[in-house]
Specification:
With 460 residues, the chain is an alpha/beta fold. It folds into 2 domains: 318 residues, Alkaline Phosphatase, subunit A (3-Layer(aba) Sandwich); 124 residues, Arylsulfatase, C-terminal domain, CATH 3.30.1120. The protein is 29% helix and 18% strand. The strands form 3 sheets. Strands 1, 2, 3, 4, 5, 6, 7, 8 and 9 form a 9-stranded mixed β-sheet that branches. Helix 6 packs parallel to helix 7 and helix 11 crosses helix 13.
Length: 460
């Protein structure tokens, strides 16, 4: 059976904050995620999927428009006081599907365009209805339990209708959130209904020092992910019980990597890696398979349009993954990512192949990059013990085969000069193609000028 083309299906799009690949199905043995692991077992799981940006709004804008932040306009956070916005709000997936006859409904996190009143968001993005927590939603309204309740109510209504539906459900967890149990200045992963979980031990990522502070944070993170999994499971159970499972494509993903030091807001794999699970019912090719090639969040939208039997977008930066899954076609040779603004201006770009990662830093911000300066954390990168926080190097190159943790910078080694320059040429071509402001505007500092000079020389 050809996977979904020409068949009108529903689409349930589940996403969450700050998860990376911290799930059992991705090899994290100490976290309890039975519902997502079960979904993965009957789906296509992408083992090397990456976001286009390591922070919330730019990553989500790419996910739902299929275009890079430099093109869709969301180079930073979309809530006040940052107020970045889609250059064309109608480029959202909801607008496209509504025009194709789908009922469209957003529940939970909305962070991919300007955070405004719900009716305004609905009108701008193409939703029939929005029940959004935004960023400023109350603690209770944004909880996974409430989001799941609302999603189940929506599915119950759709079960009695004939039109196909697009239901976009955004979970807040496992984002950090203030909690009365936190120590002064600390923002951990706890929340209503969330307790630390170390029942299976701790999985401390290799880039962190494995100490008491890291283990305390990981136990909280594991509790938050367990809570997320519980409420995702409730939604998936309702989908089946309502008789909608056989005609509903299910996507589960997250925006970017874990909210830990040297992860979120960095261009290392730890900041860009994402879980990506795609369930296409009734298709052998999409059931219980693992896809190893490089894929991008940009590919999700064109893939879904093909699976739904709809014409492709004219301006997508991604490619449908249908040939990759069904015909073993090659995935991407390179995936690209960018950071421009989070809480502050910190422009960086990366190009990744199967084996190597090139990062070019256009400013002198400290390295390792940090997600925010507004809270304290109890974990720290273990490389801080080797000299503390330092100014970012102009160019970083990592051999991911020999050094998957991206700790040994080989940019200056002569034997890697060719691959470094090849990645620089690919990066420069990509930046020019998407109209990147870092190349189309004048240098803003001597460091910026040196970064542009490196790319231009290496890519010549």
């Amino acid at each position: 059976m050809t996977a979904g083309r020409g068949i009108r299906r529903n689409l349930l799009f589940l996403h969450c904050h700050d998860l990376g690949r911290f799930l059992g199905t991705y090899g994290v043995a100490t976290v309890s995620t039975p519902n997502l692991d079960a979904l993965a077992a009957r789906s296509a799981v992408f083992d090397h999927a990456f976001a286009t940006a390591p922070q919330c709004s730019p990553a989500r804008a790419s996910l739902f428009t299929g275009t890079y932040p430099q093109r869709n306009g969301v180079l930073g956070l979309t809530h006040s006081p940052f107020d970045w916005d889609l250059a064309d709000p109608s480029s959202h997936l909801a607008s496209r599907l509504k025009a194709e006859g789908f009922r469209t409904h957003l529940i939970g996190v909305h962070h991919e365009s300007r955070v405004l009143e719900e009716d305004v968001v609905a009108q701008r993005l193409g939703f029939d209805r929005v029940e959004s927590t935004g960023v400023g939603g109350t603690r209770a309204d944004r909880s996974g339990a409430v989001v799941a309740d609302r999603a189940i109510d929506a599915l119950t209504r759709y079960a009695g209708e004939s039109e196909p539906f697009y239901l976009q459900v955004g979970f807040f967890e496992p984002h950090r959130a203030p909690d009365p149990r936190d120590s002064p200045g600390v923002v951990g992963f706890l929340g209503d209904g969330i307790d630390p979980d170390s029942s299976r031990g701790h999985t401390v990522p290799g880039y962190l020092r494995d100490d008491d502070g890291a283990r305390a944070e990981i136990a909280e993170l594991q509790g938050a992910v367990r809570y997320l999994d519980e409420h995702v499971g409730r939604v998936l159970d309702a989908l089946e019980k309502l008789g909608l499972g056989d005609e509903t494509i299910v996507v589960f993903t997250t925006d970017h990597g874990l909210a830990l030091p040297r992860a979120k807001c960095t261009l290392y794999d730890s900041g860009l890696e994402v879980a990506l699970i795609l369930h296409v019912p009734g298709t052998d090719a999409w059931t219980g398979v693992r896809v190893d090639g490089l894929v991008s969040h940009l590919d999700v939208r064109p893939t879904l349009l093909e699976l739904l039997g709809l014409r492709p977008d004219d301006d997508s930066d991604g490619s449908s993954l249908v040939p990759v899954v069904e015909s073993a076609a090659a995935a991407h040779r390179h995936v690209f990512a960018q950071l421009t603004y989070h809480d502050y201006y910190s422009p960086r770009r990366s190009a990744r192949s199967d084996r190597f990662k090139l990062i070019v830093n256009f400013d002198n911000a400290p390295n390792p990059m940090d997600a925010s300066q507004s809270w304290l954390r109890r974990s720290s990168p273990h490389d801080l013990a080797r000299g503390g926080i330092r100014t970012s190097r102009l160019v970083e190159l990592y051999d991911l085969e020999a050094d998957p943790g991206e700790e040994v910078d080989v940019a200056a080694t002569p034997e890697n000069a060719t691959v470094r320059d090849e990645l620089a040429a690919a990066m420069l071509a990509w930046m020019r193609d998407v109209g990147d402001p870092l190349t189309s505007q004048g240098p803003r500092s001597p460091h910026h000028a040196a970064a542009v000079q490196f790319l231009t020389t290496a890519g010549a």
